[in-house]
C-alpha cells in the first residue's frame, strides 16, 4: 500500500510546497514514512526523504506529485527521452517501471492524443500498470488509476485555482478542497497549461476490483472510497460480526483494537446492546502497523498503540474486536495486556473479516503465507496461543453480502476467494 | 415587422431563434462585431441581414439603426449598454429592449450592486469591501480571511478568485496568493477608465448556484424559469472560471434542487433590487435582468451578482421549452405594456445546453483562436438538438474559425435529464476542430448524477439556513475577538485574528 497525492494549480501564483506537506501528512497512514516528491516550476525536480520537512523543501512551483510508500524499490523514477523528461511515482512497487516510463514519454511526444498514447503504453505492459502520478518537463501532469482498480484515486478541486488527485479523499479535504470524482479503474486525468481531460484507457476483459484491505484496514475512517463511507462500511461489518457471536448475553463490554478496529467495535456493541469502551490509547502517529515490512518495526508500532485504559475493564467479560488477523502478534499483545495487566474475567476475540489464507498476488499487501496465523494454526491451537475464550470470524458470505449492499466489488484473493460483492 | 438585434455571440443567436418563431414573422437584422455564421444565416433567412460593426460604438450602431429603421431593437450584451448604446438609440426615438447605461451600472459595478443591496437592506446580501486604490486594498488584504477577491467591474467571466481559508495551517499560502493577486488584478483593472472601484473583496459562501432571469418594462416584472450555469472550465467543477460551459433548466420553473418557495424568494430579491435601482438612478429598467444566485446556508437565496441582460448561456435553455411568443414579450416590455403578460413553457420538459470550446479557453485566448471548425448541423438536428454559434467567425475563404472563446452551444430538450443529457452527449460529437487542436466540453453537465449531487448539497444548505432562520441569524456571521467584543466581520482571517 501507498498513498499518492497530486496537486495542480491552474494559476502559477501558487506554490504547492506546504500543500504537499499536509497532503502527505493526511496520507501518512498509508505507508511507513518513505516519501518521494516531484515538482514542476518550469523544470522537473524530484526529491526523496523520510521526514516531511525534508520533502517540503523539495516541493516547489505550481504543481507536484508526491507519494508515501512502505518500500523504496521501483516506486519512483525520472527519465528523459527525446528532450522530454518525465517523473513518475507509482502506488506500489512495479518492476517494469523504467520501461513503462520510457515508453510513456516516447508515446506522449510522438502521438497527438493522450488517450492513444496512454492506451498504447498500458497495453504494451499487459494492462498491469499500477496507479501513478506523472509530470513532464513540457508542463503536463497525468494521474492514472490502474485497470485492476486495486487502489482508489479521488479527484478534487479548490475553487477555480487547483485540481487535486489523491489515493484517499481525506487529503483533498485537509487541503481545503472539495471531493469531485472517484476515478474508475483505467481512468486518467491529463492536465497541461491549456487543457484538462478525463478519459479512460481501453481494455476489453479487465475487471477492476478494489483491494478488500483498502476498506477493511488501510483507509482512514473519515475517508470515502469509491463513493462508500469507510466508517459506515466498517460499522456494518461490526454488526454483522455480532450476529455470528452466540454469547451476546454473557459479556459485559465491547472494545476495539486501536485505532482501525474502533468502528467495527462500535457496530458490534450497538448490535449486541452492550457498552462500547475505550481500552487502549496509542502513543505517536497513526501508523498502520501492518504496512511495515520489518518485523521489529511492526512490533514496535503495535506496542506503541497499546497502553491500556485502567478501571473499567477489570473483572469484566470483554469482547475485543479487530479488523483482521495476520500474524496474530497484535492480538497476542492485546490478550497479554488485558489478562495480566488489567485482569479481565473473560476475553472473546471477534475478527471482522474471514481467516487470511493466502498471499496477495498483486503485491498490494505484504502478506507472507508462512506467518499467517489462520493459514498455519488450527482454531484450537490459535485459541490457546492467543489465550482467548472464544474466537469469532466473519465468513466470506458475510463480507460478500455486506459488500453487495454497498455496491462494492472487492478483490479477496488473500481470503481464498476471487472476489466479494461485485453484483 | 423589423427587429434589430445587437450582439455577436451565442446569447444573441438564442434571442434570434426565439423571436424568429413569432407569428409576427419578423425580419431580423443583426449588428455584430464579427461574421457570426449563425446570426448571418438566420437573419438572411428571415428576410433581414447582418451588419458587421463595432457594437460598443453608439454612433455606428445608430447609423445601422437608421438604415434598418426597425420596430424594435434588442440590445443583447452588457458592454454596449455600459457604453451608452441603448441611451443613444432611445434618444433617437427607437423602441429599445435593453438596459440604459445608468441601469446597467448594477452589472458593470459589483461595488454599486452590493452597496445598493445594503442601502435598501435587501435579503441575500454579502459582506464586502470595495477598493479604489491599491494602497487600501493592500492594507486590507493582509487581514482578509475566507474571502473571494474579484474585479469590481464586470470583466466577462474572468478574474474571480474563490479562496476558501478555513485551515489555519494553509492560511499563509493563501495570504501570499491574495497579496500577489490583488496587485495583479489592480494592474489589470486600471485599463477600465469607466469605474472608481477596482477591486472587491467579499465574504465567501458555498452552495448551489442558479440564475433567475426576468423581463421588465420598468414596472411589471415577468420572471423566467430558473437556470443553472456551470462556470468551471472542466468536468466535475474543476478548473478555471469561464463565462459558462453549459446550463440546465426544468422541469417547470424550478430546478430539481430548488423549492418553489426558494424560487419565489429569489424572484422577490430580484424585484426588490429593480425597485431600489430605479429609485437610485431615477430611471426605470427596461429589458432583461438577472440575479445570479446561490442557495447558501447563510441566507438561503443569496446574490452573487447581477446581469443587466439575459445570461449566456442561460437564455439558450428557453429554446426547447418556451411556447409563448417571445418577441411579443420583448416588444411589450420595450413599450411599457408588459403588465399581465405571461410566459408559457412546457412544464414537463427539461433542457440541457453544452458549450464546446477550443483548448486555451479561457486563459489563453490567442492560442484558442484561428482554428478551423466544422459543425455538422444536420446530424445535430437529427439527434433532436440545435446549434447556436458563439465565438466563431465565417471568413472570406468560406471557412469557420475559432475566435478564442466558446465555439458553439448545443441546445437539447428532453422528457427528463437522462433523455436531454443523452441527446446532448451525442450532439457535441458533431462539432470538430479540423486542425487537430484539442477541444473540450463538460460531459458532466445535465447528467442525472450531477443533478443528484446538486440536490444533496442544496439539502445540506437548506438545513443550515432554515435552522439559522429559526434563530434569527439569516445573513449574520459573528466573530468574537476576546477583549474587543463581538463583531459582524466575516472578512477577517486567521492572520488578522488579533484585530478585526
Ligand atoms: N462570494 C462568493 N462566494 C463563493 N463563490 C463565489 C462568490 N462570488 C463569486 N463566486 C464564484 O465565482 C463565480 C463568478 O463570480 P461572478 O459571477 O461574481 O463573476 P463574473 O466574472 O462576473 O462571472 P459571470 O461569468 O457570471 O459574469 C460565481 O459563479 C461563483 O461560482
Could you explain the architecture of this structure?
The complex is a heterodimer of chains A (423) and B (500). With 423 residues, chain A is α+β, with helices and mostly antiparallel strands. Chain A has two domains: 3-207, Glutamine Phosphoribosylpyrophosphate, subunit 1, domain 1 (4-Layer Sandwich), CATH 3.60.20; 213-420, Rossmann fold, CATH 3.40.50.2020. Chain A is built from 13 helices and 25 strands. The model of chain A has no long low-confidence stretch (mean pLDDT 91). Chain A is elongated and about 70 Å long. Chain A starts with a strand and ends with a strand. In chain A, the strands form six sheets. Chain A has a seven-stranded antiparallel beta sheet with strand order 3-2-4-1-10-9-11. Chain B has 500 residues and is α+β, with helices and mostly antiparallel strands. Helix content of chain B is 33%, strand content 26%. Chain B is built from 15 helices and 27 strands. In chain B, the strands form seven sheets. In chain B, strands 12, 15, 18, 20, 23 and 25 form a six-stranded antiparallel beta sheet that branches. A five-stranded parallel beta sheet of chain B has the order 3-2-1-4-5, with helices on both faces. Chain B has a four-stranded antiparallel beta sheet with strand order 6-9-7-8, sandwiched between helices. The mean pLDDT of chain B is 95. The chains are: A alpha+beta (423), B alpha+beta (500). The interface between A and B is medium-sized, with 28 and 38 residues. Bound molecules: adenosine-5'-triphosphate. Adenosine-5'-triphosphate is lined by residues 126, 148, 150, 154-155, 157-158, 160, 162, 202-205, 209, 231, 241, 243, 292, 304-305 of chain B.
Unreliably modeled segments of chain A: none
Radius of gyration of chain B: 22 Å
**Oligomerization:** heterodimer
| Inertia-based shape of chain B | globular
Which shape of chain A, going by the Cα principal axes? elongated
DSSP helical segment count of chain B:
15
Spans where pLDDT lies below 50 across 5 or more residues of chain B: none
* Percentage of residues in helical conformation of chain B: 25-40%
Distance between the termini of chain A: 26 Å
The residue-averaged pLDDT of chain A reads 91
What is the CATH C-level name of the largest domain in chain B?
Alpha Beta
Number of domains of chain B: 3
The CATH fourth-level homologous superfamily of the largest domain in chain B: ATP-grasp fold, B domain
CATH topology name of the largest domain in chain B: D-amino Acid Aminotransferase, Chain A, domain 1
- Report the average pLDDT across residues of chain B: 95
Distance between the termini of chain B: 61 Å
Structural class category of chain B: alpha+beta
Q: CATH class of the largest domain in chain A, anyone?
A: Alpha Beta
Supply the CATH architecture of the largest domain in chain A. 3-Layer(aba) Sandwich
CATH architecture of the largest domain in chain B: 2-Layer Sandwich
In total, the number of strands of chain B is 27
